[in-house]
Sequence to fold (709 residues):
Amino acid sequence: MSVAARKEQARSDGRVSALGKATWRALRRLPLKGRSAVVAAPYIWLGLFFLVPFIIVLKISLSQMIVARPPFTPLLTWTEGWWPQVQAYLDNYVWLLQDPLYWIAYLNSVKIALISTLGCLLIGYPMAYGIAKAPATARTLLLLMVILPFWTSFLLRVYAWIGILKQNGLINNVLMWLGIIPEPLAMLHNDFSVYVGIIYSYLPFMILPLYANLEKMDVSLLEAAADLGCKPWKAFLSVTLPLSLPGIVAGSMLVFIPAVGEFVIPELLGGPDTLMIGRVLWNEFFNNRDWPVASAVTIVLILVLVIPIVIFQRQQAKTQDVLE
Amino acid sequence: MPEASATAGTLEPWRDPQARPYVRIEGVTKRFGEFTAVDDVSLDIFRSELFALLGASGCGKTTLLRMLAGFERPTSGRILIDDQDVTAMPPYERPVNMMFQSYALFPHMSVEQNVAFGLKQDSVPKAELKARVGEALELVQLGPWARRKPHQLSGGQRQRVALARALVKRPKLLLLDEPLAALDKKLREKTQFELMNIQDEVGVTFVVVTHDQEEAMTLSTRMAVMDRGRVMQVGTPSEVYEFPSTRFTADFIGSINVFEGRVRSIDGDLVVVESPQFGGELEVASQARVAQGQTVWVAVRPEKISIAPRGEGGAKEGRRRNAADGVVQDIAYLGDTSVFRVDIGNGTLIEVTQTNLFRSIERPIDWDARVTLSWTANVGLILSE
Ligand SMILES: Nc1ncnc2c1ncn2[C@@H]1O[C@H](COP(=O)(O)OP(=O)(O)OP(=O)(O)O)[C@@H](O)[C@H]1O
Ligand SMILES: [Mg+2]
Fold:
């Protein structure tokens, strides 16, 4: 390095540190006390890991596919002069609207996710209730058993279901051996196996928030109901169930949202005609290498999910208000 | 005399050996693991009584009430309501309503819905339901709050909702666990009055838990004083106050001066006790069965002791029975009465209550005044445990 270059380097270093100081001073002037820092933390997290990627995907969804690296046209180009030129295309969204494949995939995904959520709720509620009512010593063990599957790979567990459901799999063999069915049931590579896979995989996400809710429920409320002449089953419907609504909503969201975009389960367990948006996305991205359309699919998926979330959140805030 | 026994039967059924109790608690014990919360309790409660359970915190009042309501099964013993064994009957089938100490209001229902809940279980017609809920809310002065949710109410208001919810079904047996603890004095007195009215009108049998003895005295027909899971005494308020059977009840209900001593002589009804604690002899007109030389306690209520300034020139006349000289240590002026604490030597303090008969700023007896205390033989009590 020449002397001149070294001088240049030193000067620019100085400039950087001067800039750093200025920024630091500006930051100090902001009311960023401990409290606001704590409040800001989740926003910074969301900004970095949700908002920035979202903007990048949004940007790609407005471009066009080209055979290049990266395989899409840039959004901003600097031509002659000072002003950048924006080149945004809505073609990808129009394409999504025109091809019924996408609509069917979205609707089918929502349908599968809804039914799976309902299944998780019907299976998970009694389990959560049972755990919450179990003696304190058994409770820890039962909860451990609920989260135990997380200790093995998700992929492996979904694979295992192939062995259980296939033509000469575990269930068919046992049923045939018992003489209950004359020939094997077709349980694999259709919607049924997808439901089984999703419900199995997401059940803990339903059980845990429900358990948290049911566990802190005041038993004297049920005693009061019984005292006023209410039979146990009716007391459950008129007291326990409405009071566990926040848990039901939280659990359903935790199951429904990831289930809509699920890819692995329909890919491994689903049939060729199990159309889910996660698979479409994968195809666009990896098989067609059409990043812009894949991005548009993603953006629409987020909209499909965000709208019900916002509605649910409002609802929950309202019920929370009542319960506090 | 048939007439006399008829009166005793209706007004004081517990004196009538023929009367059938409405609630029978027979040798009920409740253990939580090793701990005995209720210990071999037997009580008879009669129709239309307002029966108070009184006792210090943790003595098992709530547990006993919960067994009556059906939330706890007795470890042993039986409970009968109206001659029916309900020991194993679930709470929703019992003709009993309870007001919970913790209120246990349904947080997702409005005040109105909370009160209506019990009536809905009985499928009461809509018009009647509305009328009765309105009446109950009127009674506890919560009409304007009918649409509120429990979390929007003050503690006292919540308590009143709980009370209205228990009252509205007009059960045969109403169990109230500390029903008035969170109310201010005015409202408490009014509600006490209303409770007595309801009891008169509807003929409900009440069992009320309280640790406010004044409340128990004003409300109840009879009361049971409990200590560590056991019933120490059952009786009308005046019986329990005037004739406590043990030092525990004597001390628990009102205040009392107790002197330990030894029986020196028994002369007919007159028991003479030598008490070093008192510093002399005490005599008590008592039918208590005690033996000479036995250790006993002599108890005297503060309002039954008279206090007078000691004669200035009067020669010290030695110790008489039931009399002592002392110095006023402390005076508490309570408006209607004054409480004096008098030191009679050897570390013994005697409490004396005097009605303030005359209006005067200047006290006839002041701090450090030398006074003489005395009482008659028939106001004292002999307690042997
Ligand atoms: N479920 C339970 N398990 C173990 N111990 C209990 C249980 N319920 C009550 N106890 C114990 O039994 C005793 C009596 O309790 P209880 O609630 O009947 O008291 P209480 O007389 O109502 O007191 P308070 O005036 O404070 O309400 C207490 O020492 C309590 O700790
Ligand atoms: Mg209690």
About this structure: Residues B 32, 35, 37, 55, 57-63, 101, 211 surround adenosine-5'-triphosphate (ligand 1) (CB under 6 Å). The CA atoms of residues 135 and 169 of chain A lie 37 Å apart. Residues 100-133 of chain A form the longest helix (34 residues).
